[in-house]
Amino acid sequence: MTSADDANAAAGPDAPVRRRDLAVARSLDSARVRSEGRVQRFLDAGFELLASAESGRDFTVQEVVDRSGQSLRSFYQYFAGKHELLLALFDEAIRSTAERLEDQLAKERSPLDRLHCFVVEYYRMCLPAPKGRASKSNPTPVLAEFCHQLLTAHQEEASRAFVPLVALLEKTLADAVEAGAVRSSFAGEDVAGSILSTIMFNAAYASTISGTESHDNASAADEMWEFVARGIVTGSK
Amino acid sequence: MTSADDANAAAGPDAPVRRRDLAVARSLDSARVRSEGRVQRFLDAGFELLASAESGRDFTVQEVVDRSGQSLRSFYQYFAGKHELLLALFDEAIRSTAERLEDQLAKERSPLDRLHCFVVEYYRMCLPAPKGRASKSNPTPVLAEFCHQLLTAHQEEASRAFVPLVALLEKTLADAVEAGAVRSSFAGEDVAGSILSTIMFNAAYASTISGTESHDNASAADEMWEFVARGIVTGSK
DNA sequence: CCGTCACGATAACAGCATTCTCAAAATCTG
DNA sequence: CAGATTTTGAGAATGCTGTTATCGTGACGG
């Protein structure tokens, strides 16, 4: 193994080298792919359970294990604990959300339109799914609750997890500011965080807090934009 | 017991009746006071534990029991479970917050000033307490998390608990709308819920989400008002 | 003085996350 | 292919927590 490697490493410009590299890569990959496969099965099981569970119901590690057709033993070999599984799920949910948003944004032309699109679409994604099962980008109540635990007890991890979404919004905002569509007063501050938390938690809780359940959600997204864009004070516009 | 009661209930206009009534009343009161005393001790113990615990640490029923100098037996006699204790704590936190806000509001003259005051002061109250221990009106992280459980899994209870705060804000808003200071577009909707959740969660999480920790909190409240009042879009003002 | 009732102390039980054990299976190495 | 090594599965064991049940005691009214 070693001698062959050294020999190839020096001069081989042709097949042998590549073959070996490929082989090595493949063998490494094989091991890694197996691992990733198992990890992925746990993640999939987690998402399925999140999607199928009734509101607020948190799954059990045992359920994930059963659902994934693997063993507790394996679970704790790949995850340091339930916390890490949830973190991984949350991470993927955010990432997926950011990707889908980016796709949506690509359809808009002006910076302000993109910003509007971001707000409206993100709001829609955060609305609690009535029937259609939550996709990877739809933060189930359980994930929302976990989100809170992260934000309060593990701020580091929370910040990291939110990066994709924050970055996308910050870019969108920067463009809009440059285009003069958004006031630059907040420039260096955490507007992105403010907007995200505003949208996210409004979608999830606003109607419950007011006590006005089930309000027509068609116009809700537009009102969200009105709120974020122009606030509540009477404008001169 | 019974015959004496009936006799007195009919005609007794003098001392004996009063005495008995007083005695009964006193005994009833004494019993109730004792009960309320015990309940209150549990509540106090709960608040103390919430205030002294490090971020995100949830207390144990046993801790509450120990801290209150009573027994598990008593705890489950007065509370149906831990959930009810938390609910009671949450309820009192909201109620206390609403009261303090109302006091603050009384100092302002114009409807718009009152609204501004509401936003700024509520924001301050929701900011995570750095050192000064959380008072009854400062929703500790634990209560915030419980708030989420309520909002997702027990919407009825959540709505009820928020009533004092929502009512106060709605009144403040209505006055401002009537004065023409706030646009009435949202009139019948859940603006109150939107504003509350916006302030509450922005105070708690916005900086963490953006990753920009510890941002000067002096100007933060003002920016919150700017955000709520005029939004992010460039206004003609 | 007796009965009832509230209470405290404590054990018992159940659910869940996490760890441990042991043997079988898979994978790697030569 | 055979042996060594690692990975995996099945399930028991542990620890923490919420909740319930048991038992005895002390207070209080009649």
Overall geometry of chain A comes to: globular
Return the average pLDDT of chain A rounded to an integer: 85
Quaternary form: homodimer
Greatest interface and its participating residue counts: A-B, 63 and 63 residues
Low-confidence stretches of chain A: 1-16
- How many extended strands of chain A? 0
> Which structural class fits the helix and strand makeup of chain A?
mainly alpha
SSE order of chain A, one letter for each helix or strand: HHHHHHHHHH
**How would you sum up the major sheet of chain A?**
none
Binned strand content of chain A: under 5%
**SS element count, helices of chain A:** 10
**Helical proportion of chain A?**
over 70%
N-C termini distance of chain A = 75 Å
Task: Provide a brief overview of the structure.
By secondary structure, chain A is mainly alpha-helical.
